[in-house]
Amino acid sequence: MSTTAFQRARSEAQRLERREAILAAAVELLRERSVAELSLNELARRVGLAKSNVLRYFESREDVLLQVYDREYRAWLEVFDARLVEGGIRGIEAFSELLAATVAERPMLSELSASAAGVLERNVSGEVAAAYKRAAIANAVRLAELEARHVAPLTEAAAISFVGATNLAIGGIWAATQPSPGMAAAYDAHPELHSLRHDYRVALREFVATLLTGLAHREPALPFVAGPYRLTPEPPSTPIPSA
């Protein structure tokens, strides 16, 4: 599609098609460059639209990237779920190993996670932010369900702590394990610094395993009240009759 050939979408189906094309172009670009290097101008060129026309479908670059992030997260959950079942995974160690391995296979997910709070959430409207956070809640519920099914059911507070801390770790550990060229050169040149260079998959695995081990023995003292959603099943309002 060229910018001169652009015609405004006349139907909802055409509008959705344009949005999908923009999201697909964003994914292509993120396979070639970092989140910081992806500009709205570059995205518009890749999809064959003027920048102003891209903004007919998304309010900002960050709006596009938040939606790509949500899709990447949901795609990861699908893969993680399938491989948990295929592998007959049970217990903290095996669950943590597979979680870290499947996340490490998706560097785009990890980088978007690392950029979410500090960059991507900073240039969006309340409407876009609310939609993004609702999607994040749905993803959190799914991850908590996988933990309950393959490790052990957690209390509501522990489930919130597990999902929240794991999501922070996916982005935070990624950022800490991607050294700059200068830092990488220092690690390579000075053996005494090798212990400071961490492997992303290993660090994430150890974090999740330690987190789940701790949550099995300590109830979190959360400084907030859960919203109108739950990460664990609602208790029955009336006793379930015995068989």
Automatic annotation (TrEMBL):
<feature type="DNA-binding region" description="H-T-H motif">
    <location>
        <begin position="39"/>
        <end position="58"/>
    </location>
</feature>
<dbReference type="Pfam" id="PF00440">
    <property type="entry name" value="TetR_N"/>
</dbReference>
<protein>
    <submittedName>
        <fullName>TetR/AcrR family transcriptional regulator</fullName>
    </submittedName>
</protein>
<feature type="domain" description="HTH tetR-type">
    <location>
        <begin position="16"/>
        <end position="76"/>
    </location>
</feature>
<dbReference type="GO" id="GO:0003700">
    <property type="term" value="F:DNA-binding transcription factor activity"/>
</dbReference>
<dbReference type="InterPro" id="IPR001647">
    <property type="entry name" value="HTH_TetR"/>
</dbReference>
<dbReference type="GO" id="GO:0000976">
    <property type="term" value="F:transcription cis-regulatory region binding"/>
</dbReference>
<dbReference type="InterPro" id="IPR041483">
    <property type="entry name" value="TetR_C_34"/>
</dbReference>
<dbReference type="Pfam" id="PF17929">
    <property type="entry name" value="TetR_C_34"/>
</dbReference>
<dbReference type="InterPro" id="IPR009057">
    <property type="entry name" value="Homeodomain-like_sf"/>
</dbReference>
<dbReference type="InterPro" id="IPR050109">
    <property type="entry name" value="HTH-type_TetR-like_transc_reg"/>
</dbReference>
<keyword id="KW-0238">DNA-binding</keyword>
